[in-house]
Design a protein that fits this description.
This protein is α/β, with parallel strands linked by helices and 193 residues long. The chain has a single domain (3-192), classed as DHBP synthase (Alpha-Beta Complex), CATH 3.90.870. The protein has helices spanning 3-12, 34-44, 59-62, 70-79, 96-99, 113-121, 146-151, 183-192, and strands at 16-19, 26-28, 53-55, 84-89, 104-108, 125-127, 152-155, 167-170, 175-178. A hairpin with a 6-residue loop joins β1 and β2. α1 (3-12) crosses α6 (113-121).
Length: 193
């Protein structure tokens, strides 16, 4: 069984997986399984009021979990896959624990071959950095916090990542919740559309 097969099986079983993205290493679990999402919060020692995004293999797949407006869809088509997290109205299938009770959820389509291959096998998965909250994000597998590695059933090594975290954008309000990669391009697009 390949590392990818092991990782996909682990996610299907409700376990955690460390996986690379073009930004930083992520901590993946079945984003629709409340118990798996709880394990992500526990492992990261993350405040339950801080929502977690979900990752999918492409924009079309995202529509199974969110209801993007026309403008949000146009934005997603322009910037995904890429280092961007787009907030959209969630569908009922997305559990409250993932969104901290919000009616919106962050959507991520990582621009990384290994992450996309994993997502083609199992989706959606949580899209949050593979670190204990408050500690630096990991750009290499060796930098992932030991507590996170110990909690994960599989670790996919994709080499060194880009290091700049994704920009989190609410297209509906035009608000950037976190300025990261492509920030200037995103601000220009929002102003022009």
């Amino acid at each position: 069984m390949s590392d990818l097969d092991r990782a996909a099986a682990a996610i299907r079983d409700g376990d955690l997986v460390v996986y690379p993205t073009e930004t930083v290493y992520g901590l993946g679990a079945d984003a629709l399984d409340p118990a798996a999402v709880e394990r992500v919060y526990e492992t990261k020692v993350r405040d339950r009021s801080n929502p977690i995004s979900l990752a999918v293999p492409d924009v079309d797949a995202a529509t199974s979990y969110v209801r993007p407006t026309e403008r949000e869809r146009a934005f997603m088509e322009r910037f995904l896959p890429g280092p961007v997290t787009v907030l959209c109205g969630r569908r009922e299938v997305v559990p409250d624990v993932l969104t901290a009770g919000s009616d919106r959820v962050g959507v991520r389509v990582p621009d990384h071959d290994l992450a996309l291959t994993l997502l083609e096998r199992v989706e959606p998965i949580t899209a949050t950095s593979a670190n204990v909250s408050g500690r630096p994000s990991a750009r290499r597998v060796e930098d992932v916090d030991e507590e996170v590695k110990d909690a994960a059933s599989a670790v996919l090594d994709g080499g060194k990542t880009g290091g700049v975290e994704s920009t989190v954008v609410d297209v509906a309000s035009g608000e950037l919740h976190r300025l990261g990669a492509l920030g200037d391009e995103i601000e220009t697009w929002l102003a022009d559309h």
